[in-house]
Structure formats: structure tokens, C-alpha cells
Amino acid sequence: GQQLNQSPQSMFIQEGEDVSMNCTSSSIFNTWLWYKQDPGEGPVLLIALYKAGELTSNGRLTAQFGITRKDSFLNISASIPSDVGIYFCAGPKISSGSARQLTFGSGTQLTVLP
Amino acid sequence: DVKVTQSSRYLVKRTGEKVFLECVQDMDHENMFWYRQDPGLGLRLIYFSYDVKMKEKGDIPEGYSVSREKKERFSLILESASTNQTSMYLCASRPGGVNTEAFFGQGTRLTVV
Question: Which of A41, A51, A86, B43 could form a disulfide with B35 if both were Cys (CB 3.0 to 4.6 A apart)?
Fold first, then answer.
């Protein structure tokens, strides 16, 4: 099936450190979405990527659409306490006809230590 | 701004009760989804709907049903709640088209005792 393998599953970092996480798939994706879920809240979109090789930034966040279209990376620079949460990658599920569904990675739980 | 609103943030229900979780979106999106989220298991799709009165099963539909009588509203029904349905439930909506994002509600934390 069309699965997204997200790693690492969890990270404990010191405030101020940079963070990197990634998603890979055996299938090609035409869109990569990165979401963040604050504790007790619903996920919110951080960055959307639409072209292979695309590099997009949103403040301290940078995401890249892999050139093979089978992977994507999210980097967070100079982490702060409010970066705590679960980060998900997602992409349209091609097998679902008109791609109505999104496939989600299993999430990366980020903890920032003071 | 797109808004997806879930009717409750927290619910406590008894085993065997019929439970309704309501979700409303204000952006005329075609597609609406119900997920449950459990530690270590990510987001698992229960049901989704791509039009009024249309529904499709997701990955874990057992023990659940849904209703979409109006485009803006998508309800998740637990016919007879059980303790293994204690979870975080997330509603999402998404416009038509391949390269579109999903917008999530704030989540409902359901505890079945």
C-alpha cells in the first residue's frame, strides 16, 4: 500500500538546537504537506510542497520535496519551547481515485528541553 | 480563515451509550473526514465523505457510523460505546482537487468508562 515512513519517532533536544525529520515512501507523491499538532489540539498546516526539488521556508522552518518525489524533509532551526508537539508529513493517497484522502506519516514527537 | 469546529473538546460516556460527535466546516469543502488518534498509532481514518449523503469506510470503521445530511456537517456515531473507543477524535475537511490541504478541528477527547 501507499505508506509514509516518518522518522525519528521521537526527539528530545535542547532549546536552541536544530532539528531534522523526514518522511519516505516507496510510492511517488505529487504533494508533500507538513503539519504540527500542539498538545491537545488538532494538526495545523506548516508547509506545503508541490514540486520535486522545491525548498520552502516558513520562519525557522524549512522543508524540501525530494528530487525522487519519494521523500521530504523538515528542518527547524534554533528550537524554542513552543516547538514542542507532534509533526506529521502527509500526501494525497493516489490509490483513492481522485485522491480525496491524505496518507499521513506516524508522526515525530518533539520535546524541547530548557 | 477556514474553520472546522468540533462540538465538544472533552466527553465522558458510559459503556453501551450511543455517542454523537459533531463536526461543522464553514468553507464549502466537498470532503470531510473522521480520524482517531492513539499514542504510537498516528492518525487512523475511520470514515470519510465526499458529498452529502455519501460516505466511504476508512481503515478502522468497525463500531462506528457516520452521517452527512448537509454539506457543512459530518457526524460520527458510536452505536454502543466501548472502553476501547477511548481516544482523541479529529475531524477534518478538504476541498476537491489533488494538491489541497486538509483542515482539522481542535479534536474531541472521548473517555468511555
Answer: B43
Instruction: Say yes or no to pLDDT of A2 above 90.
Output: no
**Is the Cβ pair B104, A48 closer than 8 Å?**
no
pLDDT computed for residue A108 by the predictor: 96
CA distance B94 to B113: 33
Residues B22, A94, B89: CA angle, nearest 5 degrees: 20
Q: Which residues of A are less than 8 Å from B31 in CB distance?
A: 100
DSSP label of B109: E
Give the nearest partner residue to B31 out of A100, A104, A105, using CB atoms: A100
For residue B45, which of A86, A29, A93, A45 has the smallest C-alpha distance?
Answer: A93
Q: Which of B41, B48, B107 sits opposite A41 (nearest CB)?
A: B107
d(CA B61, CA A77): 40
Q: Do A43 and B90 touch (CB under 8 A)?
A: yes
A88 grid coordinates: 506529521
**Are A45 and A34 in contact, with CB atoms under 8 Å apart?**
yes
The model's pLDDT over B43-76, given as tens digits with 9 standing for 90+, comes to: 999 999 999 999 999 999 999 999 999 999 999 9
* DSSP string covering A33-69: EEEEE-TTS--EEEEEE-STT-EEEETTEEEEE-TTS
Q: What is the pLDDT of residues A5-62, one digit of tens each?
A: 999 999 999 999 999 999 999 888 989 999 999 999 999 999 999 999 999 999 999 9
